[in-house]
Every structure is written in C-alpha cells, then in structure tokens.
Amino acid sequence: MAASRGTSSAAERVGYISRIESFSACHRLHSVHLSDEENKTLYGKCNNPNGHGHNYKVEVTVRGKIDAVTGMVINLTDLKKCIEDVIVVPLDHKNLDKDVPYFANVVSTTENVAIYIWDNMVKALPPNLLYEIKIYETDKNVVVYRGE
Ligand SMILES: CC(=O)C(=O)[C@H]1CNc2nc(N)[nH]c(=O)c2N1
Ligand SMILES: O=P(O)(O)OP(=O)(O)OP(=O)(O)O
Ligand SMILES: [Zn+2]
C-alpha cells in the first residue's frame, strides 16, 4: 500500500528548491550619510579605506507547484543561468562599491547585497517563484531575505 502523502494530488504539491553559488568580492562598509569619523566608529576595521574581501556563498530558494508532468518546480538548469546572470557576472571578482553602480550610495552590507540580488533575481525568474535569498558573508555571518 502506498504510504499516505496527505490529501493533495501531485498537481497541487508545492516544493522548495535551492541552488548554491559562491562569489568573491571586496568591499568597504562606509555610509555616504555619515561622516568619516562616524563611519570609522560604526564599522571599525570594515571601514578600512582599502577595503577587504569575502568569499560569499549565496543560496537561492524558489517555491512553487511541482509540475505533474515534468516533476519540477523549476528546471535547475534555468535557475543556474539566472544565478550566473544576476549574481556571478555582476558581483564575482568585483569591488562592490566601485564596480557595482547600485552600491555607489548604498552601503555594501550583506543585508543590502541580499536586497540587490532579490530585486534582480525576481525580474529574471518566472513570476511568484522566488522565496528566499540566503547569503553567508563568512562562516559565521549569515543573512536571510524574503522580499519583505
Ligand atoms: C565582518 C565583515 O567583514 C563585515 O563586512 C561585516 C561587519 N558587520 C556587518 N554587520 C551587518 N549587520 N551586516 C554586514 O554585512 C556586516 N558586515
Ligand atoms: O572579521 P571577519 O572578517 O573574520 O568576520 P567575522 O566572522 O565577523 O569575524 P569573527 O570571526 O570574529 O566573528
Ligand atoms: Zn566585509
């Protein structure tokens, strides 16, 4: 006897699928709205004028119906392409503050990097699929953004 899987039919099943990608970038935490002294006090070593780097790890999660025919929420090959276009090409081996126009006047915290990725990923994916952006700035610093 097949194990009970609830009352939904396969066509109504909802799944979450993620892909992880890494990119390396440097940045400096410095707000254009604060004085140099305020920036130094607030961001400490992360305000070093010469910047510093991270090997960021990004987990992109989409949520949607598991198609009854294809068995997929989204083709991971398509998600991979979106991640390449939205994350790797504009951010990998870049100086976030100098090479990415968005961060010219937006401080390049991981929270703001997550917002940047969300706003561009939501335009690249089919509608109503993007669920979450999770970014590891270091092994210990993690940000989650769900478009709120
Ligand atoms: C550590 C670092 O190298 C950082 O750049 C940290 C410093 N603190 C911090 N705090 C946040 N709320 N968000 C950050 O992205 C961040 N980066
Ligand atoms: O200061 P870093 O770049 O090592 O980043 P961190 O993870 O915030 O530092 P810590 O390892 O002291 O938490
Ligand atoms: Zn940093």
TrEMBL record:
Example of a GO MF term: 6-pyruvoyltetrahydropterin synthase activity
SUPFAM superfamilies: Tetrahydrobiopterin biosynthesis enzymes-like (SSF55620)
The protein's annotated pathway: Cofactor biosynthesis; tetrahydrobiopterin biosynthesis; tetrahydrobiopterin from 7,8-dihydroneopterin triphosphate: step 1/3
Keyword Glycosyltransferase: no
Gene Ontology biological-process annotations: tetrahydrobiopterin biosynthetic process
Enzyme class: lyase
Protein name: 6-pyruvoyl tetrahydrobiopterin synthase
Origin species: Channa striata (Snakehead murrel)
